């Protein structure tokens, strides 16, 4: 019997012996329509073969629709889903509100201690693990080794923001449409503000002080955003205020970016010779810092969680344990190759000699380990989250702030004006919310 089946069988035996699983329990799973989750659905026959008493029903949705549907269902305790795919932003909020089922009692062989501490901490509230990570990511520097060499420079493994500025200046060749650095400029809490919040952390900035007073018009935010504007205006591509993850990915693949600081998950795209004209020329480095003890990188995980409204909790735990297990990773590797396994969740994956051959594996791990959602900035904060603040109001607030900064990048207002507006609207929203 294979390892993944033996784990599944052992889990099933444990639950059956406790009388928890009954014949043909249906588990309804809400998930996002990205490649890793589509693959999980395709491999789920392996699970049902080992668990004939559990029937899986899949609801696969586009990301924005998924967020809307699961948020509505869990807030109303509607019980429509037994397993939800949610992000690191939702888990601390929903866990604190008792909307999720604790996963502290997953089987010992699932090995909770193997989960990377940075990922596990972001999914834990008061000692209770409220979601099992399916894959994790941080952000890092992806750069053109050939352009660095031509400029007579060498990228440090752990660069500073000044290193980035020096390299951007040296690599920029606007006549030939090569821009030293490509960064997110498109407005949105998960677009430009994900990047800028992580960057601002490394400058000592924070969204709120320990009394929940906003600090967006403070010196640290001003220094960080002005540095970002300097990079983008002098060494970035035209029209950057409309560029998000996908636009910058396309520019980098076309050979138009010297550097791109963004999600570690992009590494497999920029090194894929089928899609990238510079696939064999890409190097990786940690996200930059300012020598203050924090790097400008974020932390995210897509995770599986069980809503408190589920009437199939034990069967749902059996599925979650299978889909986020070491044995599931081995199953994917056996069918798709190690470069395609879900990354960024387990220590054992990064100790695996086969996975260590993947060119971006080590830098992804280093980037994840450099992020701490419980202490994201240089100064103490009252919130959890690296590139977000884990409060329900944040998504709306940060989207408005992102619009002000994007407008400054487009030349419609100054950085000072943008941050003054950001401070005012954030203060108003927080006061209205009762902070």
Q: Overview of this structure, please?
A:
The protein has helices spanning 3-17, 35-50, 63-75, 90-96, 117-122, 145-150, 161-171, 192-202, 219-235, 245-253, 267-270, 313-323, 326-336, 347-350, 361-369, 394-409, 415-432; strands at residues 25-32, 54-61, 83-87, 124-125, 128-129, 132-144, 179-182, 257-263, 282-286, 299-305. Helix 2 (35-50) links the parallel strand 1 (25-32) and strand 2 (54-61). The chain is α/β, with parallel strands linked by helices and 435 residues long. The longest helix is centred in the last third of the chain and has 18 residues, at 415-432. The chain contains 17 helices and 10 strands. Helix 1 (3-17) packs antiparallel against helix 12 (313-323).
Whole-number tally of structural domains = 2
What is the overall shape?
Answer: globular
Provide the succession of SSEs: HEHEHEHHEEEHHEHHHEHEEHHHHHH
* SS field, number of helical segments: 17
Helix content: 40-55%
What is the top-level CATH class of the largest domain? Answer: Alpha Beta
CATH superfamily of the largest domain: Periplasmic binding protein-like II
Structural class estimated from helices and strands: alpha/beta
Number of strands: 10
As for the CATH topology of the largest domain, it is D-Maltodextrin-Binding Protein, domain 2
Report the radius of gyration as a whole number of Å. 22 Å
Uncertain segments of ≥5 residues (pLDDT<50)?
A: 8-22
- Proportion of β residues? 5-15%
Please tell me the overall pLDDT.
92
Cα(first) to Cα(last) distance is: 55 Å
**Main beta-sheet annotation:** 8 strands, mixed
**What CATH architecture label of the largest domain applies?**
3-Layer(aba) Sandwich
């Amino acid at each position: 019997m294979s390892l993944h089946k033996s784990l599944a069988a052992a889990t099933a035996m444990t639950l059956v012996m406790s009388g928890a699983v009954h014949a043909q329990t249906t588990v309804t799973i809400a998930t996002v329509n990205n490649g890793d989750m589509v693959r999980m659905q395709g491999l789920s026959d392996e699970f049902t073969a080992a668990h004939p008493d559990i029937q899986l029903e899949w609801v696969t949705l586009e990301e924005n629709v998924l967020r809307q549907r699961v948020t509505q269902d869990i807030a109303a305790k509607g019980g429509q889903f037994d397993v939800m795919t949610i992000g690191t932003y939702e888990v601390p909020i929903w866990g604190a509100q008792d909307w999720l089922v604790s996963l502290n009692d997953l089987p010992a062989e699932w090995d909770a201690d193997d989960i990377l501490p940075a990922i596990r901490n972001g999914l834990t509230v008061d000692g209770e693990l409220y979601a099992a990570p399916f894959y994790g990511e941080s952000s890092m520097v992806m750069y053109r080794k050939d352009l660095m060499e031509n400029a007579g420079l060498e990228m440090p493994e752990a660069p500073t923001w000044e290193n980035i500025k020096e390299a951007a200046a040296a690599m920029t060749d606007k006549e030939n449409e090569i821009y030293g650095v490509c960064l997110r400029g498109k407005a949105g809490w998960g677009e430009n503000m994900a990047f800028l919040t992580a960057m601002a952390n490394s400058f000592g900035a924070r969204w709120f002080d320990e009394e929940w007073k906003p600090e967006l018009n403070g010196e640290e935010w001003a220094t960080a955003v002005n540095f970002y504007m300097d990079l983008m205006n002098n060494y970035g591509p035209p029209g950057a205020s409309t560029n998000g993850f996908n636009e910058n990915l396309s520019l980098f693949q076309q050979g138009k970016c010297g550097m791109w600081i963004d999600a570690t998950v992009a590494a497999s795209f920029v090194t894929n010779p089928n899609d990238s004209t510079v696939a064999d020329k890409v190097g990786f480095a940690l996200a930059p810092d300012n020598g203050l003890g924090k790097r400008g990188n974020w932390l995210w995980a897509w995770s599986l969680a069980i809503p408190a409204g589920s009437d199939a909790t034990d069967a749902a735990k059996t599925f979650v344990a299978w889909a986020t297990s070491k044995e599931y990773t081995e199953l994917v590797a056996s069918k798709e190759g190690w470069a395609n396994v879900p990354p960024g969740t387990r220590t054992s994956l990064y100790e695996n000699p086969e996975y260590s051959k993947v060119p971006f594996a080590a830098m992804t791990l280093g980037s994840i380990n450099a992020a701490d959602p419980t202490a994201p900035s240089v100064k103490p904060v009252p919130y959890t989250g690296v590139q977000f603040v884990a409060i329900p109001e944040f998504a709306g607030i940060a989207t408005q702030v992102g619009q002000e900064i994007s407008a400054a990048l487009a030349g419609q207002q100054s950085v000072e004006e943008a941050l003054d507006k950001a401070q005012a609207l954030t203060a108003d929203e927080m006061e209205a919310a009762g902070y």
